[in-house]
Design brief:
Length: about 475
């Protein structure tokens, strides 16, 4: 296929260099967006009397047949083309003749690719938002189911205080609500049209950029033509949001891996989301969670690759910027694949409630509540803290738990202890007493569930 820019050159591009230069292998993903943008560009050229209405209609009809043929599989994208823009334009000229050559009036590939990728990522951002919302809904349903299931809460991976499994799960729901917000923010900043910025300086034709922006669903136009063709902030911002989603998925995966181990045995993953060993028949491995954890590094790498590519590029467009697509496309696909596997894995996950409760009974995780008991008897917190620390040391030495100590043993440490201390340090009381907003009590967890439920209802109303 002859290059569109062949007139300036006396000989053909070296084959190796041509392959190196080509982007058709990955930017072919954007064929729908490229054709849609071109159709609206042709309509604008006619409305501004730059080409005739008949020419515009021929171009739009020709582009529609190309789109239909690609969608149906009748037309295969030619990988010998330099990029998707050149492929579509060559096909158009082949089908409708020289009128097709007028399509590129008042436009450059620089603004063309910039609008294509914004349209493509806008659609993909919506898809990722939908998948994150589905995950939040699943987490919320599991939180309802296990709202009263007591388990140890951890700091430093050491048993710290009793919480409920529902409360713990809702922490992830909250993280993912923020991810939805970040995606929506990134999408809003991305939704401005660079079409009409041309190569970098605009055009001598009296075009109507607002017309094409509105037709393509943008909120407005890029106000500086140099910025319009050279900006890839929106890619970086979206990939940053993807990286945070993956970080949250990875943290969740790490806990799933721990919880499903024999050392914890807090949960059982469905067979559909685990694998076995080639040599050890007893194994049930949490491979899906491990892969999500591993693919987080891949998405981080995509982000760092693009940041590094962009950091030294002068204005305006440079060929380096072609490297944005493989990174952002890989990031999008990886996040979507992870969410599509992770969500049903969580939906089918079952808690082993008795193991969670037994773990909560050990590790002195009600020690803070014992200290609070003394504070309510009038002791300063630091004095109570020291006394309880001595009691814990005594229990460890004598292989006891706090609930098994006699009242007399308690009184040997402080005369303020009475029989009601046992009620105060029961796991159920420890959980239910934490009535502060956001805490682990039943009433607080129910409020958090209500918040997530309302959040989902609002987001579904938007979508």
């Amino acid at each position: 296929m002859e290059k569109m820019w062949a007139g300036r050159f006396s000989k053909a591009l070296d084959k190796e260099a041509d392959d190196f230069n080509s982007s058709i292998h990955f930017d072919c993903k954007m064929y729908k967006q490229d054709i849609t943008g071109s159709m609206e560009h042709a309509a604008m050229l006619s409305a501004c009397n730059i080409i005739s209405q008949d020419e515009s209609l021929q171009i739009i009809d020709g582009l529609q047949t190309i789109l239909d043929d690609i969608d149906s599989g009748k037309l295969a994208i030619d990988t010998d083309a330099e990029d998707i823009h050149m492929f579509v334009e060559a096909q158009l000229t082949k089908r409708i003749g020289d009128v097709g050559k007028k399509l590129h009036t008042a436009r450059s590939r620089n603004d063309q690719v910039a609008v294509d990728i914004r349209l493509y990522l806008r659609d993909e951002a919506d898809e990722v938002i939908k998948l994150v919302l589905e995950l939040i809904e699943v987490i919320n349903e599991q939180a309802k189911k296990y709202a009263g299931t007591i388990m140890p809460g951890y700091t430093h991976l050491q048993r710290a205080q009793p919480v409920t499994f529902g409360h713990h799960l809702l922490a992830y729901a909250m993280m993912f609500t923020r991810d939805v917000g970040r995606l929506k923010d990134a999408k809003a900043r991305m939704n401005y049209s660079p079409l009409g910025c041309c190569a970098l300086a605009g055009t001598t034709y009296n075009t109507d950029r607002e017309m094409t922006a509105k037709a393509l669903g943008f909120d407005g136009v890029m106000l500086n033509s140099i910025d319009g063709v050279s900006d890839r902030d929106f890619c970086v911002e979206l990939m940053s949001a993807f990286s945070l989603i993956m970080m949250h998925l990875s943290r969740f995966s790490e806990e799933i891996i721990l919880w499903s181990s024999w050392e914890f045995k807090f949960i059982e993953l469905d067979d559909s989301y685990t694998t076995g060993s080639s040599i050890m028949p007893q194994k049930k491995n949490p491979d899906m969670a491990e892969l999500v954890r591993g693919k987080t590094g891949r998405v981080y790498g995509d982000l760092m690759a693009l940041l590094t590519t962009l950091k030294g590029i002068p204005l305006a467009y440079n060929k380096d910027m072609q490297e944005d697509k493989e990174a952002i496309f890989d990031s999008v696909e990886t996040v979507k694949k992870c969410l599509r596997v992770f969500t049903p894995m969580i939906a089918t996950m079952k808690a082993i409630e008795e193991n969670m409760y037994k773990a909560a009974q050990n590790g002195f995780i009600n020690a803070t509540d014992l200290a609070d008991y003394l504070v309510k008897q009038g002791l300063p917190f630091r004095s109570a803290y020291k006394t309880v620390g001595q009691i814990v040391a005594y229990c460890i030495e004598n292989k006891k738990v706090l609930e098994a100590m006699s009242l007399q043993e308690y009184k040997n440490f402080d005369s303020n202890f009475e029989n009601d201390l046992y009620e105060a340090i029961s796991l159920e009381t420890c959980v239910e007493k934490r009535i502060s907003l956001g805490g682990t009590s039943k009433v607080s967890v129910e409020k958090q569930i209500d918040y997530i439920t309302e959040f989902l209802a609002n987001e579904k109303g938007v979508h």
